[in-house]
Write a structure and sequence with these properties.
Order of helices and strands: H
Distance between the termini: 106 Å
Largest sheet: none
Structural class: mainly alpha
Number of helices: 1
Shape: rod-shaped
Length: 61
């Protein structure tokens, strides 16, 4: 008779899951931070362009 008992599933150490979760959270935060930085840069450029165009219309004395 063959004794074919199912092999127990591989146990993943708890610290592995924590590191994975921390890595995912850090990647998401970096992506959001990068997008925010690019957005702020674009808004700054638009504001500078707007102010430069406004300044051209002001007569110099």
């Amino acid at each position: 008779m063959n004794d074919t008992s199912p092999t127990p599933p591989e146990v993943i150490p708890p610290y592995t899951t924590g590191w994975r979760l921390a890595t995912i959270i850090c990647v998401v935060l970096l992506a959001v931070g990068g997008a925010t930085g690019v957005s702020l840069y674009e808004m700054f450029n638009a504001q500078i362009s707007h102010l430069q165009a406004k300044l051209k219309n002001v007569p110099q004395t």
